[in-house]
Amino acid sequence: MALKGLDIFKLTPRTNCKECGNPTCMAFAMKVAQGTVQIEQCPHMSPEALAALAGAAAPPMKTVGFGAGDAAFTLGGETVLFRHDKTFVSKNPFAVSICADCADDVLAEAAKIDYERISERMIVDAVNVVYTGDKDGFLGAVKKAAGFGRAIILEVADADAAKAALELVVGAKPILNGANPANYKEFSEIALGAGVPLGVTGASLDEIADTVKALEDLGAKDIVIDVGSASVKEAFANAVQIRRAAIKDGNRSLGYPTIVNVGKLAGGDARKETALAALFTLKYGSIVVMSGMSYAQALPLYGLRQNIYTDPQKPMTVEQGVYAINGATADSPSALTVDFALTYFIVSGEIERSGVPINLLIPDAGGYSVLTAWAAGKLSASSIARFVKEHDIESKIASRDLMMPGKVAVLKGELEESLPGWNIIVAPNEAVSLVKFLKERYA
Amino acid sequence: MPFTKNPQVFTAKVTETVIGTGDTAVRLGGESVFPLYAFDAEFKNPPILGIDFSDKGPDRHIPGIAAFYEGAESLADIAKRASAAEGASFVSFSLKSADPNGDDESIEESVAKCREVAGAVTRPLVIQGSGNAEKDAQLLGKVAEALEGQNVLLMSALEDNYKGIAVGAVLAYGQKIAAESAVDINLAKQLNVMISQQGVKNDSMAMHVGVAAAGYGFEYVASAMERIRGAALSQNDDMLQTPIVTPLANEVWGVKETIVSEEDFPEWGPVEERGIQMEVATAMACLASGSNAVILKHPESVKTVSTVVSELM
After folding, report:
1. Does the structure show a pLDDT above 70 at A337?
2. Nearest-angstrom CA–CA distance, A157 and A130
3. Is this prediction's ipTM beyond 0.95?
4. B38 in a domain, yes or no?
């Protein structure tokens, strides 16, 4: 819970000494409350007051790091329940599960998924290695996971197997997901010794809260809560209640990231897994573990995750430049729209649907939609002409047909003046009419 | 220390709207908890699913859809088959041929098709118009007249045509309407206010607050729905309390991921599975954000999502 300015003021010396650069202690306290200055800037705070502030200002949900190198992730650290209040910060990694027998097949499928979407590389982020009672087989699978080069989760509640696995991959900083009310003492020791985050679960939220508390008393800091797999309803209830307790109710004992194993919850039905993965991407799964990942599943899920974790104040943009669609060449006509990712996706999708080869020109329009960009002066005849010049479009593209968004048809006259020799064509107002428009004109 | 539950149960409720008649009638809305939070309190009417086909027939180029409707040629037979889809609580019929920018079929023809479908379905019916505001203003009124007594939900009333539809469909013939706005809480509220000023009560209304396929700006959909549900429940804003109905098949089956052929993108695998997965993910995301009903087109997507919803309740 964030402190109010008045609470902070009570802890200051109240001498108005100005050494912090503010006219009064009250002004300083208000700025601290807003987060614009740090409390340390006051040289006269007592240690007791600093300790009290540190406790109160601690984030409601801890941040836990796992993985190493290119496959390092930050989990948790969320401060809101709804993304319209503030950005969600830690994207949920998607993991696939492997066991001794199925490792090769699952990893071969998972390796295929590798593509870029709006400047983000989409791959299977982590591998969840499951212990099924066969220690040698488990260790073999752990080695395969290590060779795969992604982050690792060890799903093992057997101390011997856990220790042996950690010896193999401790450098990769895996999550040791295996603590429960029966074994937590031993597992806490193992995880602390290896310096890896510890996953904990229990039969109910009561058990989970108790075990987390006991682990904290033993010194554990990096904890991840497994919401369990007893039933879909219970897993969802746990994920929501854990996040809500931490953020809304200030319950620190549950202020940790969560693991949701939708593979187990779906019982082998891939489509059901996708439904659950979508659900937990929206509602509070910090890591989503699937039994496997196909392209058909990855495409919607990674897109959804990218959407949900966008900063609501800062729209996604695509890079400016020329995008050749449907195998467009220098002789294909050009079309122009803005760099707002959503607009780009919809327009490029409709052009693809039309099958007509088009060079899609994307100038810097400030990441706004067409009308907003125009109103803000980010999309004008002169900015388009500048873009055409800077990108040397006239020598790259021979065709002189340029389609412009119908919503800014008003720019046509100015554009014709700014771009002599070009045939400026007003395209439809809505992307949905593009297919018909392009086919009629060029097909 | 045991975990102290702190359920969020509101005194405000999403209003209830009934569509259909008799034993198969369904209730939309009525809950006083956040979307799918059945663990906080009983979720009064669990979210439901509809299955959609258009007046051009089901999309038989998708093998699973072709198999599902195999042998059903007339609209009446197709409607019967759709009524039997596992997990579907209602049937949605889209008047695509009525679009003035497409086939521009006459209103009489569209109304005749609606009669045929309405006479055959064994579940409540949703009629989706042509999507053209001007045409729908007249078309939906005539459909409402023709289907009087069947208590259908007409989609959609827009800012540009709500007056005619509100008066013509709801007040004159007792049908239900969905107010459609574009992914914005203020637009949604404004339209609800305007429709209510025509004398239409909340229990005759639903809203379609916009939708996008997963990956295509879904953050706007999620936030619009979450804010609408937040205002309805925690601020008791009765102009945002009507149930949300989200038709998403057109959006989902019209994006690159569900269109491009396997030949062009061999690593992506068969088109049909991509479409089902996209439909399932988008539907679930809508339900998690606030939809009381979603309308899909593939029977397998309907089955999957309805199973997950029932497990959550």
Report:
1. yes
2. 10
3. yes
4. yes
